[in-house]
Amino acid sequence: MSRILVVEDEPAIALALEDDLTLEGHQVEVVADGETAVRAARGQTFDLILLDVMLPKKDGFEVCRELRRAGVRTPILMLTAKTQEAEKVMGLDLGADDYLTKPYGRHELRARVRALLRRATPETAEVCRFGDVEVDFGRAEVRRAGETLDLTPLEFKLMAAFVRRRGRVLSRQQLLDAAWGSDLAITERVVDNQVVNLRRKIEPDPANPRYIASVRGMGYRFDG
Ligand code: CA
Q: Which of 78, 201, 202, 212 has its CA 20 to 30 A from that of 129?
């Protein structure tokens, strides 16, 4: 059972979230303004925070930034009303982990919550699995149906970056930093090309990626 803090000032939405997450087996606490949210998140331990953007007293952007500054590392899923807000979530250095644009479907919400909770559990496993693919960190190799894939070191780093941040939207810049380091000569276009190569090796149908999803205007998200 996970403890989830829901920060939402619209009672109907808050209630729906609470019902849905409780049904999923989580323990839910709801607060309705930004100041209370900061107090709750700093004073107690949660596994995940669902954070609305438009809130009384302090908006979701500010809450997120403040919590990260205070060293609170709980995964944060921002609930945004508009695409522009979503862009802001990923564009500003807020420290949010993911976002959902309202109105969102129940299934989508559950999937995101699950992904973030899974990611929050310490990544101690030396081998991560998704579908018939195994990412072996100890041996620095990736296997598919038991066969070792011929991945370049760069592709392996990219794969590792995806797996370590599964369920989270990663911008091209974040992927650049993770796989290439601080090589400034690399353009973001190169990231796209490498993602295409990686998809060819790990996706059952590379033309319709199941694991490495493109997130329009943002980057990529690994849903393994
Ligand atoms: Ca609101």
A: 78
For residue 173, how far is its CA from the centre of ligand 1 (angstroms)?
30
Residues 6+ apart with CB under 8 A from 26: 1, 2, 3, 4, 113
Model confidence at 185, pLDDT cuts 50, 70, 90, reads confident
Tell me the CA–centroid distance for residue 5 and ligand 1, in Å.
Answer: 15
Q: Would you kindly state where each structural domain of the chain is located, as residue ranges?
A: 3-120, 127-222
Residue 75: name the closest of 113, 33, 21 by CA: 113
Q: Report the pLDDT averaged over residues 93-120.
A: 87
For tokens 């729906």, what's the residue?
16
Residue 154: per-residue pLDDT: 87
Taking the centre of ligand 1 as the mean of its atom positions, its distance from the CA of residue 83, in whole angstroms, is 15
Angstrom distances, CA of residue 218 to CA of 84, 169, 174 = 12, 7, 11
Residue 200's pLDDT band, with cuts at 50, 70 and 90, is: very high
- Let me know if the fold of 3-120 is the same as that of 127-222: no
Phi and psi (nearest 5°) for 35?
A: -65, -45
Q: How many A from CA of 28 to the centre of ligand 1?
A: 18
CATH 3.10.450.350 fits 3-120, yes or no: no
d(CA 79, CA 75): 13
CA of 1 to the centre of ligand 1 (A): 27
